[in-house]
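Pasting two entries for a bug report.
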Amino acid sequence: MYICRRKSYNTVMNRSILLLLMVFVISSCGDRKEQRSKSPTRVKTQVVSHGVDGSGQTYVGIVEEREATAVSFTGMGVVKRVYVSEGQEVRQGQLLAEMDDTQARNVLSGAEASMTHANDALQRYGMLHDSGSLTEAQWVEIQSKVAQAAAQLEVAKKNLADCRLTAPVGGVIGRKLVGAGETAMPSQAVVSILDISSVKVKVSVPETEIRDINTATPSLIQVDAVGESYQGGRIEKGVQADALTHTYDIRINVANSGRKLLPGMVASVRFMDDKGGDAAKCLIPVTSVQRKADGTLFVWTVAKDSTAHRTEVTIGATHGNSVSLESGLDAGQRIVVEGYQKLSEGTMVVF
């Protein structure tokens, strides 16, 4: 009887130990799942920028390069190789493409031979001229042939050099229009080089509103492709209207030090009323403003360590999809505009 009770006790102990092990394993798996759930949350952010608190018109604009340069060969020939690709940064003087130079080298060899022959004749006939055995007319003809040979040699050298296409300016390759094996025609663009160190935003303004815009009119430019806002600079006003739409093209200069703005991007442009208002106020998206249970307003801001925090704000008047900020944020702070539903205080984020 004692032996049976002993076996029953051992069985209970073994089951208890097994149960504890199972609880430990399940707990460990839960801890690992919890650790995995703490991976950074992906959100979309926007940097707060200064705007002007006033009623202004909003237009759709297109980003353009500051300047475009079409680069081409001066002569006709088969392109042997193109050394650059679209989007590549190039410096002034960098080799872009080469043309088959077989014919140019042959012409140069002939010009060098003619130059050698002319110099030899000049030396031989020079002695006759010095001794008076050569007329002045014959001497002038010899000198003319030397000058012609020299000119032909320079042309041949230039034609050979022109088989190598180099960048006249620095910038970014916009388009590659001719490839290896194709025949390039004189003045046919092989590549285009774009200067995007700064850009221009082109906007079409109705003739009834163009009078309200001058070269110093403040503007706020929102580019959704990069998720950032920019302060517009000097404005260039066109003087010729479109015959069908009766609109004038204006171009707003925008700094592009980070080269995030690329030609072709769509921009939302707001011209501000500079006849009053506080130009130090900031504009933020309406959808980024949240409300606490006690009624106070806040936005999610991203700290330098990529953690999200609730920041209380006071807002003013709305301007389309934006709202003016009275207090709480400074220009340059990064706020969350999408994905804030998944955030809690101190959440790590990526953007």
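Entry 2 (this is the one that rendered wrong in the viewer):
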Amino acid sequence: MSDKRSLSRRDFLRTTAFSAVGLALAACAAPAAPAPAAAPAAGEAAPAATAAPVAAEKVQVRFHARIGAQEDALYDMMMPKFMEENPNIEIVRESFPGADFVTKVSTMMAGGTLGDAMWSALGGATIYFHYAQNIIAPLDDLVAAQAVDLSQWYEGCLNAITIEGSLLGIPFKAHPGWGATYYNASAYAEVGLAEPTADWTLDDQIEYAMKLHKTEGDQVVRFGYLPGGLENAWKALLCVTRAYGGQLLNEDGTQFLLMEDAARQAIQYTWDMHNVHNVAPKPDQILGSVGEMWIAGALAMNTAGTFRSNADAAIGDTFDWMAVGNAKGPAGVGGSDYEVDAFCVTSASQHPTEAFQWVQYLTSQESGVQLGLIGGTIGGRPDVYGDERLLAFPFRRVFKDLMDNAQPSRLVGNWRQGEAEGVLAQMCQPLWAGTEEPTDEYISSIATAVQDVLNKPRP
């Protein structure tokens, strides 16, 4: 990035690591021995013995977390602080890989070993599945009993994880979907091109991509632009479809709208980038991963979620980069939607009140800000996105504007979101590879295959 930071991420992590260790040591230190009682004076009766105070029994709250470097660093920081502030509660963390998480908690639920609080997410309709399987409990009664002010979190995030009138969790991390385009500012300077502004258009994006595309002989050394479809066809096409004024799903998520004009235009626009303008790599031209190509400077622009900002440390001084909202289409928007990770109270919890205290702590302003200072997606709260500690990072200002204006999420009505996304991604690969064209026949075949998923019963 062009702007330098007053506190490096390495310095921050060193400071917080020492703080966390200090708290842990303080919590574990043996208490000072009490001064011995004075002996009674001659002739005086010894004082009556008093009963020793009975220590309150600690409540153990087990919480199931998804393994991740950012999250793990936060838990290591926040757990000792929470237990110091709440000495009657012991937090026990049990972490599982993301790929195994759903299976693991389902197995624990069936075996009667599920804990008290747990991670879940809107992505793939995971939180809806957890609700359908009675793994998590609605929070409405706990919110009312503890008079929690829900306006602390983005309304769109809360709406996204509310089903059938029940709030299923509290937003832990959130971002505006695949609403951002990252660009190599050094490449823009190299070709004498002004950097994109918040009002740039899809036509501008084509023009810029063609100017930024760089070859040496027959070898492409820098692709002008990579749409997000190679990484996440659903999320990326959703944004472009909304830029053209449409939706991928109807309001209740029962109909897939790929054959409507806006979605067809979104596919055509993406296909053209790969196969007409030839500024986007085809699937077989991706070396390693999209993230690795971005870090190597092989992509002048790419569309992604806020997670792409994690590459900052790896990029270092190789080139300057920045982010901007997606190029706007005829609808006057670049397209976005709320993505939410949440923490929930399990239906099996014997200590729901204490579990909910921990959930609130993990979803507090301070927790959300620390997520950002560690690096990556931050808490789903306006007071996190607007915190001056984060706004010191220039790209965070862009994310704040995107989050403040994000469009509502829409998921498939039968909660088989992951399955529907998988079918779309698989059938779009031949388009991006250029082995299929976006004909009525082929697009109809995609629409039919995804609609078949939507027609299935809820899991």
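Dev reply: Rendering is fixed now. As a check, the viewer should reflect this: The domain at 180-336+412-454 is CATH 3.40.190.10 (D-Maltodextrin-Binding Protein; domain 2).
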